Fold these 3 entries.
Entry 1:
Amino acid sequence: MFNSNPETLNQMTYEGVLTKMQTEFGNPIQYYLVFEDNFLNVNQLLGKPMEINFVGFQCLNCGKKKKIFRQGFCYDCFYSSPAVGDWIMKPELSTAHLGIQDRDLAYEEKVQLQPHIVYLALSSEVKVGVTRKTQMPTRWIDQGASQAIAIVEVPNRYLAGITEVALKNHYADKTNWRKMLTNSFETIDLVAERLKVEHLIPTEVQEYFYNQTIDLYEMQYPVLEYPTKVTSLSLDKTPNFQGKLMGIKGQYLLFEGGIVFNIRSSEGYIVKIDI
């Protein structure tokens, strides 16, 4: 539901199923909440009060009004859909290159057998990660990285996965979300850091190492003021919330007083947003 009456533009209402915010790379990054019939440019709400009200659930996979279990999926879909197989979180478990099915080989071939990037990103500290080439720089924005650089481009997800596993012994593989949201990190030269990893990657990936000039991505987020401490907002515990939006970083909304709301972890929740 979208209220576009010009006489009530100061009290607009959006209602729909939360999915991760869509982004446009720029200075700063532009964020959009996209619903079935309309969308909201979240950057325009900076410095303004907004109200979020929990309405219900809708599984992103089957569309049924069932309680969300994880990642926007209901319990049944989470354990049956190929979109949330174990190889998503652990790329080294990918088997489509061998013609071996996990849940749905056609889906897995489509996703796994395409160019993937192994990268270093700076969010809370230097971390190693994997993403499909088509997801650059979206993946880094979603993680709240301030900088990122590609290490290798490989033809499938499995090779990216074994490279990440080798580098996990030397770099973190998860973002400390509290440090990321308070903008607490050391400045590190990722170009120089990248040169250190060539001898650390698996032999079968050496030929893909980027030894030419590589673009360093730098992300500027729309934040008026970073919090010094953060407290996570859960719609399960707080179904009605009001606050002034002070920033957007990663997939988080940052509110006055250090309250932060992770849109990604609330996918599948139906909400009504009043602004």
Note: The chain is about 15% helix and 30% strand.
Entry 2:
Amino acid sequence: MKKKFGIIGKPIKHSLSPVLHKYWFKKYGINADYEIIEANDKELPEIIKKIKQGDYAGINVTLPFKQKIINHIDKIVNDAELTGSVNTVLLNNNKAVIGENTDVYGLQAAYLKEIENNFNKKALVIGAGGVSPSVILSIKKSGIKNISITNRTDEKCIFLKKKFNFLSIIPWVDFKSEIKNFDIIINATSLGLKNGDDFNFNFANTKNEVIYIDTVYNPLETKTFKYLKEEGRKVFNGLDMFIYQGQKSFYLWNKVNPEIDDGLVELLNSKLK
């Protein structure tokens, strides 16, 4: 019997998760399919019901449901519990629907080598949405203690500070002038996403040695990414994070740790051109 997986979100057409997982299904001879599930809030209970019934063997979760889905599943564990953010859902041996978080692992696996041992560095997280708690926890796990956050609305920052009391909040109106003080900047917003808005200013006053990480991977190079790259800054897009979080999701579902080979990377890059 063919197993069925999917990703739930809205908008979701930009996702490369089907390409990623179908590549691994084929490589490891797993009889499974992976589909896009564009849904609204009211449809979440029905989707979870389908997991309980075995219609889905597991799903990934993206914006805007990483927090919302928690109210509909039986239990959150590990990094999902620490962040209050779920991006992977599966059914355990006791038929309970479990929420996991593989975004934290994805960021660490992709970029940790760039920020490890930088305990005295200052990090700025831009955005307080669905992926932000995972970004914050990843940075903290790397050993960096000085972490700030900024967002267009302060309410979300205040909410995150209740969970991560070590955070400093930078008002959005001060963000542009403050970026010069940071060694690591991570864009955890959807700004720059294909066919979407981008930052309405450049990052000219960042440090020359700044590390800029964009969680966006479609397009591979956002306007801000291109600008900082041309200015000689060290920049990373969100593709590696996407691949590594998918790798861990795949393992949780199938108990197979899939290889990230050149064929996969070339395939994903070809889809983003």
Note: The chain has a mean pLDDT of 93.
Entry 3:
Amino acid sequence: MKVSNFKNLDLIAKKIRRIVSETIVYAGKGHIGGALSCIDILVALYFGKLLNVNSKNPNSDKRDRFIFSKGHASIALYVVLSELGFFSKKELKKFNKANSKIAEHPDTRLPGIEIVSGSLGHGLGIGGGIAFAKKIDKKKNTNVFVLMGDGECYEGSVWEAAMFANHHNLDNLIAIVDRNNLTVLDFTEKIIKLNPFKKKWLSFGWNVLEADGHNINEIQKKINYFKKLRNGKPSVLIANTLKGKGISFMENQIKWHHGVPSKELLKKMRSDLK
């Protein structure tokens, strides 16, 4: 399948959603809601060539770094990487099995995985440290990307990292927040209000844009804008998404944070993702 236009990228996103859904159903475990909400972001980054990475040379010193901080949704990243040839698609059959590299949270034994994540709130600090090192080494043509969940932004370490990035003028750091408005317990604004979310990031000295997190074209345009900006400030894209995106009975429903659909529901899921 060619990936030369946005229509094809949308088809790729549907394919990724089907594989993610089937893998979780057959494994009997996995965080399906948050995986489905971030797939269009991942497709824009990887298939839309926003990230400079290469499956044939995954450890190249010239690569961009992608920190998948919302580690519980790792199955979405695994499927993307397997489709791009970082490792065999057969590995997906081992998802969440004993002694498997394809675990519930990312495992650096897999090519393309930069950090072990899952304890939320650490990805932005790690990404900031890598971006700072690249500044010291004068590697001007590489970027560090960090994908976080919105519930993750309750963590104080996120805002400590935000201050660090602004203080050190890390304009090679681009964060993306998967703003699906749901956590494992409830809607974010019912637990602890994140809004006004954009103003918070602005007050920490970041460049801030919002986007429809399911519009691949829009995501690409705004990330490309950040890549070219280089104004001495880190950047964050607030990607407004739906938890469970693409499957009608899952969208915006708390139970599908880590609920696992039955095999009987798989037919309906496949129909939604045609």
Note: The chain has one domain: 6-272.
